[in-house]
Amino acid sequence: MRDSAVPRAVGWLKAFRRPFHENTLTSRVVLSQAPLSVTALFTAFLVLAFFPGVFENPLFVAFLVSQLVITALCFLVPWDRLPFTSFLVLPLLDFVSIGLGREGGQDSLTGISLLAAFPVIWLCASGYYPRTARLLSFVGPLAIIWVPLFARGDVSGPSLAKALLIPLMMLGIGVSVSVLTQSMMRQQRTLEEKDQQLQAGLEKSMRQEALLNTILDTVHTGVLAVDAGGNDILMNRKQRANHILATPQDIPDPNESQLLVFAADRTTPVPVGDRPVRRAVLGETFTDYLVWLGAGPQQRAISTSARAMKDADGKFAGSVIVFSDVTDLVDALAAKDDFVSSVSHEFRTPLTSILGYVELLLADGPDEERQQPLEIIKRNSERLLTLVSDLLASRNGQLLVKPYAVDVADLVRASVSAAQPRADSSGVVLETDIPAQLEAHVDGPRISQVLDNLVSNAIKYSPDGGNVVIALVQEDGHLKCQVRDTGMGMAPADQAEVFTKFFRTSNVRRTAIPGVGLGLPISKAIVEAHGGTIEVESKLGQGTTFTFRVPV
Fold first, then answer.
1. CA of 194: how far to CAs of 82, 180, 207, in Å?
2. For residue 319, what are the β-bridge partners?
3. What are phi and psi of 70, to 5 degrees?
4. Is the separation of the CB atoms in 43 and 112 below 8 Å?
């Protein structure tokens, strides 16, 4: 018995400490009745100590017994199995019990009627049937006082009127408690609605987070998010693998400067300030920045891109960096360049031999019938040999140029004159906007090669005729040349790749215009070898303009 009583006692102590609404229904009923029960107990002690004769009054004894019975009902009745508001019968029984106590002890304790405040508060604070509760907060105390008067036959006006103060006081208490309770209940409902909204928002956020994490861990791209201080706030599965790849074997937890991050040559460490994460932390935005991670056979080529994040005030709040493994692509491009280099080397030997024998035949002074074919063979062999040499030079990253003083205006006129027959056959009108003379220190044959290629392309990609304008001007210490046509033009995606070796636009492929995609890359290499730049502007169906600039 004692062993079971201790846990129950501990449980009731916890019930007093917990918030009222978190207790069970039985506990809430007991707690609501407890103030009156305790007060009744103290009343019994006071009467016993100072007015022991009151215990001879059966009405007072009935008051005490009824309080014990009501308190016992609080504990014993399974309120959660009955209709929910069944417990409200208890404060009504309290009114009857207090009425008995008042009649039995009013000769000694005149304030016993004020005990009616406890059931009034219980009824009005319950929040159920608020109008009825307010009515009972007046009728109940009034009945405690008037019922005995009617029972004794003392129903005079003064006797009934002088007892109205206490019921009016109880009504005031009941109304105040009811108003406060209703206000608190409205606030509670509002808070519960907001709590439900927050819970729904939290669940939605958790679902979205789970979805985001699943997507990030599914994609074969490393994703890293950092805050403004450079601290990692998100890293997916692939990026964790990249981090492990870049971690030195003898450093379990390296910082940014200790990671194995190398430049394009795969051996030179990238300075800390130039590393992708550091650049992103500094707020830089970049695309396709290539680095190599790791060392040895496991080394991988990683293309990195970064975008800055902004807070509500537009201030830098961090960055998201994407790491794409492009090792296979880099190896494929290297293999393609090696193939081009090998084939070019293989072409050079027979071409050199052909040129040598043709020159021997020409040196012997052949007749007119053989002279022209031999010269055609020589010219085309020299052109092929130049193309092979350019391929090899572009494979190695540069072309050799030998600048000297040249009248570039004459080079333009020569290029236009050479292209005129083809322009006439294609219905293209060639126009020039050049000065009479414009000297520059450039490699004449190389610049002529660029001009021939740009003018030839302008004619070739104007299959329906049109105009081609070649403009030449000197500005800001540079030679600027523009070749503008009104042909088929290019889409924006094609413009980004137009200087890539072997690239041909989708529009050109559909029209079956011949070409191998080497003229523009070689022209770009020639211009850059002069320290200049070349760029393109085009609109699909409206024509294309190529502009190159080289220092005078």
1. 31, 21, 20
2. 226, 308
3. -65, -45
4. yes
Lowest mean pLDDT among 21-35, 65-79, 188-202, 357-371: 357-371
Kindly give, in sequence order, each residue whose CB lies less than 8 Å from that of residue 9, ignoring residues fewer than 6 positions away: none
Q: What angle do CA 295, 273, 221 make, to 5 degrees?
A: 55
Q: How far is CA 66 from the centre of its chain?
A: 68
Residue 308 pairs with which residues in a beta bridge? 319
Residue 89: which pLDDT band, with cuts at 50, 70 and 90?
very high
Taking residue 80's Cβ as centre, other Cβ atoms within 10 Å add up to 12
Sign of the torsion angle spanned by Cα atoms 251, 256, 257, 263: positive
pTM tops 0.70, yes or no: no
DSSP annotation of 219 reads S
CA 130 to the chain's CA centroid: 51
Cross-strand pairs, 313:
none
For residue 62, the SS3 value is helix
Residues 6+ away with beta carbon under 8 Å from 167? 138, 139, 141, 142, 145
Torsion over CA: 254, 255, 258, 262 (sign): positive
Cα–Cα dist 323/114, whole Å: 79
Q: Per DSSP, what are the bridge partners of residue 405? A: 441
Q: Decide: 302 and 323 in contact? Cβ < 8 Å.
A: yes
8 A C-beta contact, residue 104 and residue 122:
no
Pairing status of strand 428-433 against strand 466-475:
parallel
Give the pLDDT confidence of 49-66 residue by residue, as tens digits.
Answer: 888 888 888 988 999 999
Sign of CA dihedral 273, 276, 281, 282: positive
> Distance between CA 540 and CA 174 in Å, rounded?
84
Q: pLDDT at position 340, please?
A: 67
Going by C-alpha positions, the residue among 235, 106, 95 that lies closest to residue 167 is 95
Distance between CA atoms of 184 and 193, rounded to whole angstroms? 14
Residue from 423, 513, 438 nearest 477 by CA: 438
Token pair of 287 as six digits: 């695309």
419: exposed, middle or buried (Cβ count in 10 Å: 0-12, 13-18, 19+): buried
Percent of the chain with pLDDT over 70: 87
Burial code (b: 16+ CB inside 10 Å, e: under 16) for 506-521 equals ebbeeeeeeeebbbbb
In the numeric block, the tokens 């109008």 are attached to: 131
Q: How far apart are the first and last CA of the chain?
A: 110
Range of 76-80, 251-255, 518-522 with top mean pLDDT: 76-80
Concatenating the DSSP letter of every residue in 394-415 gives HHTT------EEEEHHHHHHHH
DSSP 297: G
Distance of CA 180 to the CA centre of its chain: 46
- In this structure, the number of other CB atoms found within 10 A of the CB of residue 211 comes to 10
Helix axes 2-17, 25-50, angle to 10 degrees: 100
> Three-state DSSP class for 359?
helix
- Residue 289 · residue 304 · CB < 8 Å: yes
